[in-house]
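Course assignment 3, question 2. Fill in each field.
Student: A.L.
Task: Predict the tertiary structure for the chain below.
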Amino acid sequence: MLKNYINGEWCTSSATNYLDVINPATAEVLGTVPLSPATEVSSAAIAAADAFTSWRRIPPTERVQYLFKLKNLLEEHFDELARTITLECGKTLAESKGEMRRAIENVEVACGIPILMQGDYLEDVARGIDEFTIRQPIGVTAIIAPFNFPGMIPFWFMPYALACGNTTIIKPSEKVPLTMQKIFNLLAQTGLPKGVINLVNGAKEVVDAILDHPIIRAISFVGSTPIAKYVYSRAAANGKRAQCQGGAKNPIIVLPDADLETTIKIAADSAFGCAGQRCLAASLAVTVGEARQTFTEAISEVAQTRIVGYGLDEKVQMGPVITRESQTRIEGLIAKGIDEGATVLVDGRNPKITNYEQGNFIKPTILQNVNPQSEIARTEIFGPVLGLIHLNTIDDAIALVNSSEWGNMACLFTTSGAAARKFRYEADAGNIGINIGVAAPMAFFPFSGWKASFFGDLHGQGRHAVEFFTQTKVVVERWPKDWTRQF
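Answer field:
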């Protein structure tokens, strides 16, 4: 039975309902997670509020020392954490290691908080009057994390919240709570003061308690767009700050002059990496002009030969999707696409994976002649399914990108600098890739997103995270000679 971590102590939940944590490749039960009641969110919030009073007064140069310790512990336990991600999430071990590397990068960036958190100062805004801004922590914060990156996504927010002087509560996905259990074991070894960081396992009751609790001042969320919209609206209605990353329907545009070999490799990794369970996964490939035939033939061959299986097996290139329900939903959307007129170029439904017949496997799937107005072209599949669309010009492709309700990522493959500049200038998406299939920003840049892919103003990572986890105070100051002691 997994435990919560509140006020520096591992606590057995009083929950009466539980869920099994299932290995999606083997159907093995890895553990049991409690669906904690709202009262345990309140206990964590009170502990975090009590800790905030003293934590915010610790100089930032001292606060980051805990993060330095955490970085070293994450490095020491790197392989163990990556293996845990693969066990409970299903991705390949190489993908899990890449995830943890990005988590560590965010810790490293947050250690620069003595510079990142600095304000501005201007003397003599009027005669004898100085004006300056300072950044101060906002208080108790909370992070509601998704299943697809149990190690990385909490680190888009947590190290910045702590470095800025806030305290925080993390709710991992109930589907993949084991990774965060292990990370909290490492956090406990850093010597962080009690209550600075807390963990509450659970489902919707815990989410709603976080959104409604008056002590909690700011919410960071990553998940599907309907839930992101729900979290954002309820948090905002309660006067909280919120940054809510939603879903996506990401297009990659392939021009006739693109380097085919490189484009195919990158496009396949983008579409089928992590079994397509990424908000930056390519789900539409838009070929322009003469790129159609060569790209279609090559991407089909790669999809058919991709090795699917248990992520701990060294040769495996793609693991399962997270649950049997997800598998059924994805296969249903493939069927929907066929009903709408798309043709199946590569069909990954109902695969037989030797020794892992109980796993939630779907092989890479490619749908050809997808109608840009169809439901399959507009719906986030969140699985290893790539739809092919053909258009005549780059202007048509950009118009397709901009007509979407989504705005997370769009990529262009070309050897034309003029086309690349036009695309990055005109495409309406928060993350743009040029000859890159997964436009995931480094930790010192914000993880952007537009339109229905993001709700809020400030994103995770980098300076955006610092701004989100601080509030700006403006001080106007005058010291007339007759009001102050003279020396």
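Instructor remarks: The chain has a mean pLDDT of 97. The longest strand covers residues 129-137.
Grade: pending
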